[in-house]
Specification:
This is GOLD domain-containing protein. The protein is of the alpha+beta class. It has two domains: about 1-100, GOLD domain (Jelly Rolls); about 100-155, no CATH class. Helix content is about 40%, strand content about 30%. It has two helices and eight strands, in the order E-E-E-E-E-E-E-E-H-H. The strands form two sheets. Strands 1-8-3-6 form a four-stranded antiparallel sheet, with no helix packed on it. It has a four-stranded antiparallel sheet with strand order 2-7-4-5, with no helix packed on it. The protein starts with a strand and ends in a 5-residue tail after the last helix. About 5% of the residues are buried.
């Protein structure tokens, strides 16, 4: 739940995996001479859901690939009117929690206990998939960290060699200079 000031836009972003079901439900307070629009986009600005002049509604989509998705609410006020803040209530569900298991149970003629077991099975699969994804990300981050550490090590060795070389050159140059000016022997 959040407040949306007049003639402003508020966006919420989340990174989602491929083939994830997203169900959203929203409710916007009504104000005279004001409209609120919403739009759901991905990082390439493809519109997945959109509606104008909303007060209450739902949206549903399935992600086609792993991407960052954005839900934006835009308040619009007529130019000759003074606007007030909208109160926006947004409830999103994704993955297992977004599935309608009652409909699945009725279609497959499952008992309530079997439906609950199916829900728990899907939930445990989702947890396992999340752990696999976390493990893959941890491996990627560890590899990046080790690679960066090696590069910094080689850069510091190179810069130390350059500094030592320049220091030796400076000593030899100054020694030659002072000998030519006959300041030292």
């Amino acid at each position: 739940m959040f407040h949306l000031a007049p003639n402003t836009q508020k966006c919420l972003r989340e990174e989602l995996k491929q083939n994830v079901l997203i169900v959203g439900e929203f409710e916007v307070s009504v104000a005279p001479n004001q409209k609120v629009d919403y739009v759901v986009t991905d990082s390439k600005n493809n519109i997945l859901a959109q509606n104008n002049d909303i007060t209450k509604g739902k949206f549903t989509f399935v992600t086609e690939n792993q991407d960052i998705f954005e839900i934006c609410f835009v308040s619009k006020v007529d130019p000759h009117h003074r606007g007030v803040s909208h109160e926006v209530s947004l409830n999103t569900k994704r993955g297992v929690e977004a599935k309608a298991y009652e409909g699945i149970g009725e279609a497959a003629k499952l008992k309530p206990m079997e439906v609950e077991l199916k829900k728990l099975e899907d939930l445990s699969d989702a947890v396992v998939q999340d752990f696999v994804q976390m493990k893959d990300r941890e491996k990627l981050m560890r590899d990046t960290n080790e690679s960066t550490n090696n590069r910094v090590l080689y850069l510091s060795i190179f810069s130390m060699c350059c500094l030592l070389g320049l220091a030796c050159w400076q000593v030899l140059y100054l020694r030659r200079f002072f000998k030519s000016k006959k300041l030292i022997e």
